[in-house]
Design goal:
Length: 240
């Protein structure tokens, strides 16, 4: 709590600067008084056609699935991401998660909600929004769950119910970014359990996180939801 208070105090005392390039912000040329328009325009978007599994842009759209996903068994039905995890957005996500700037949530969620509307994602078919949970140890360190913040804003925008405690992490895993691709699935294997099976059974679910890389984390979470009786599990992340 003290860290969040000090961060907020610093934002009040010092002139507003872009969180990316650090130049002073001008009200008419910035996004939410946080990011200048020049930096915002550099966020790389995911254009169609999309892989029907991981949601990445298909470079050679001869099939509807990318070569990486052909070799995987992922338990979610489909994933979507509006942006590519690089450059400006990668820096903003790191600032959001690791520097206590939870107020970036509405700004980053805007990328997701605009993507939903632009590509007409089937929100009417979905019953619940569920965030990927943090382990209680990591939640104490970070003081908030970034996926929960994103979920709250998405649910409010599309009038959906959020189940914050529908999933629980059973153990503290290594951060996926520290691992090789082949190690990530083993790292999160059987690391989630569904805690509200009566609310999940027969439901179509939107599972929300900040980043999808190999898909291992979201796949294991989706497996736990489907074991609890979930019908369809779609994944939405900020970037992949």
């Amino acid at each position: 709590m003290l860290r969040k208070f000090l961060n907020s105090l610093a934002d009040i005392v010092y002139p507003k600067t872009c969180l990316v390039c650090k130049r002073q912000l001008k009200a008419l040329t910035c996004v939410d008084n946080l990011v200048c328009m020049q930096c915002w325009a550099k966020i790389k978007r995911n254009p169609p056609p999309f892989c029907h599994c991981c949601g990445r842009h298909l470079e050679k759209p001869l099939k509807n699935i990318c070569p990486a996903c052909v070799r995987k068994q992922l338990h979610f039905d489909r994933a979507f991401s509006p942006c590519v995890y690089e450059g400006v957005l990668k820096e903003l996500i790191h600032t959001f998660k690791y520097q206590g700037k939870d107020y970036l949530g509405p700004t980053l969620t805007r990328l997701m909600t605009e993507f939903i509307e632009e590509y007409d994602l089937p929100m009417d078919l979905l019953d619940l929004v569920i965030p990927i949970p943090l382990h209680k140890t990591r939640l104490r360190e970070r003081e908030f769950n970034q996926a929960q913040i994103l979920s709250n804003h998405i649910a409010r925008k599309f009038d959906k119910k959020v189940l914050h405690e529908a999933l629980r992490r059973l153990r503290l895993t290594k951060t996926q970014t520290e691992l090789e691709i082949g190690e990530r699935l083993l790292n999160v294997k059987a690391s989630f359990t569904a805690t509200k099976k009566e609310d999940i059974e027969g439901k179509n679910i939107l599972l929300v996180d900040d980043v999808l890389t190999t898909g291992a984390t979201c796949s294991e979470a989706a497996y736990a939801l489907k074991e609890a009786g979930a019908n369809i599990v779609f994944v939405l992340t900020l970037a992949n």
